[in-house]
């Protein structure tokens, strides 16, 4: 039987909002009719996270993510419901939590460590490791109120993960660190996962959630709208995020109904269809698979009409419509089975139904798991097409060299513009097309991307009796 690390049953949290300080005082002195407005940050959250698993939590600002984490950590008390946490928990929440700004970094290491249940001797034993990981130099003996946000996160993460937590909670904090430190943090997170730790991970980075998490939940307006595979949840989250305000409620209902039709055992990677069949995976085209014994020079591109995505996510259009996304060879022939190291063109058409300003066109290539491999914008980040008139059709083409290793990949298509003074998607399709890179028999490459590595060996015969020296360069 799977042991549960975190369990929430019908958890709700209500905050009382007073328009005047005097109303708060009256409520304390004269109980009875409340003078406060109620704001429900969470409503009836039910959730179980098994030990050793990683759960991603995504949602718009104000959706209840941070409130949920604070209740799990214990810094907030739920208004109703039951919370069970099994194991030592360490949290990296909003900047400043658990640290005294007047204390030095050194003092805060001991202060925060004691808050997490470590003894003085345990902290002293781990102190050098914490300092080495944080790598903030002489600032260790300066008050933390003088720290930059990046330095603060370095120290906070080093302390939080040094206690060998059974459960680690990370709420957006890693977004402020530099890339090298972020990589070190993710390596530490992977170490915690490898030894069986449970992780709750909040991030707006789709790539990070997909790479790290076993499952994800979508929070919105205090409600757990969706629990599913990370890529599936993120697709719905992005659709909700960029929807016009008058379409949001309809999308919420759509996602809520979708959750009722599919039961997802995220941690066993098993999907069980309860009612209407909901395709969320790749439609494989096994009948058209090229012969693996074919010599590389005989591998040819071709188009398979069965190799199509089964769950394209389309944003609500805002005056533009993307049509006919496909890949062609330079001579114009449409293909979706490609050969490595050759040139292709990804193209789609955009019909503008309304006047558009500051327009940009883009594309993105992803793996089956949703990992973003690379993309491009038709215009530079500082430039855009100033205006496009209604009833205009634009054909967009992106030429690329296929440096991907054999496998199946997905494509996005999007067009952005200025709406009510803000840049947003005029039209966007996630997983709108897919292609397969065919196997090669004489390829040295491994992983996802072919870096065109050419291995070479040099053996020093003079030292063969002592040892064989091999240089790879």
UniProtKB/TrEMBL annotation:
InterPro entries hit by this protein: AAA+_ATPase (IPR003593), ABC_transporter-like_ATP-bd (IPR003439), ABC_transporter-like_CS (IPR017871), ABC_transpr_TagH-like (IPR015860), Bact_Polysacc_Export_ATP-bd (IPR050683), P-loop_NTPase (IPR027417), Wzt_C (IPR029439)
**ABC transporter domain location:** 23-246
**A Gene Ontology term for the protein's cellular component:** membrane
- Keyword Transmembrane appears in the UniProt entry: no
- A Pfam match is Wzt_C
Q: Which GO terms describe its molecular function?
A: ABC-type transporter activity; ATP binding; ATP hydrolysis activity
Q: What superkingdom heads the lineage?
A: Bacteria
Family assignment?
Belongs to the ABC transporter superfamily.
Query: Could you identify this protein by its name?
Result: ABC transporter ATP-binding protein
Whose protein is this, by species? Aerosakkonema funiforme FACHB-1375
């Amino acid at each position: 039987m799977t042991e549960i690390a975190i369990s929430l049953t019908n958890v709700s949290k209500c905050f009382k909002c007073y328009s005047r300080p005097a109303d708060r005082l009256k409520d304390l002195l004269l109980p009875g009719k409340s003078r406060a407005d109620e704001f429900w940050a969470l409503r009836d959250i039910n959730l179980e996270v098994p030990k050793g698993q990683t759960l991603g939590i995504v949602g718009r600002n104000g959706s209840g993510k941070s409130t949920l984490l604070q209740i799990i950590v214990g810094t907030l008390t739920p208004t109703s419901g039951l919370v069970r946490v099994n194991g030592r928990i360490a949290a990296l929440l909003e900047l400043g939590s658990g640290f005294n700004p007047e204390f030095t970094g050194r003092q805060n290491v001991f202060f925060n460590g004691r808050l997490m249940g470590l003894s003085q001797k345990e902290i002293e034993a781990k102190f050098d490791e914490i300092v080495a990981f944080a790598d903030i130099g002489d600032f260790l003996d300066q008050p933390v109120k003088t720290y930059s946000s990046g330095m603060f996160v370095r120290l906070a993460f080093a302390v939080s993960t040094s206690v060998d937590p059974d459960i680690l909670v990370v709420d957006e904090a890693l977004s402020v660190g530099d890339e090298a430190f972020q990589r070190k943090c993710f390596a530490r997170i992977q170490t915690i996962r490898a030894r069986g730790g449970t992780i709750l991970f909040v991030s707006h980075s789709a790539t990070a959630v997909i790479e790290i998490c076993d499952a994800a939940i979508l929070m919105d307006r205090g409600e757990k709208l969706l629990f599913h595979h990370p890529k599936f949840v993120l697709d719905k989250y992005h659709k909700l995020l960029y929807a016009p305000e008058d379409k949001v409620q309809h999308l919420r209902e759509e996602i809520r109904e979708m959750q009722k039709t599919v039961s997802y055992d995220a941690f066993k990677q098993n999907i069980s269809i309860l009612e209407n069949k909901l395709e969320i995976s790749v439609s494989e085209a096994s009948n058209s698979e090229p012969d693996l014994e074919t010599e590389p020079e005989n591998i040819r591109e071709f188009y398979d009409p069965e190799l199509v995505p089964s769950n394209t996510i389309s944003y609500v259009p805002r005056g533009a419509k993307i049509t006919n996304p496909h890949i062609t060879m330079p001579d114009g022939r449409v293909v979706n089975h490609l050969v490595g190291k050759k040139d292709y063109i990804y193209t789609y058409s955009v019909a503008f139904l309304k006047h558009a300003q500051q327009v940009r066109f883009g594309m993105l290539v992803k793996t089956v798991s949703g990992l973003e491999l690379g993309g491009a914008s038709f215009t530079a980040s500082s430039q855009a097409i100033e205006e496009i008139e209604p009833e205009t059709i634009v054909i967009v083409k992106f030429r690329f060299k296929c440096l991907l290793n054999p496998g199946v990949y997905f494509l996005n298509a999007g067009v952005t513009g200025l709406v009510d003074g803000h840049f947003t998607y005029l039209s966007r399709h996630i997983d709108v097309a897919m292609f397969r890179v065919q196997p090669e028999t004489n390829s040295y490459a491994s992983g996802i991307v072919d870096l065109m590595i050419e291995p070479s060996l040099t053996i020093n015969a003079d030292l063969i009796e002592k040892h064989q020296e091999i240089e790879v360069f």
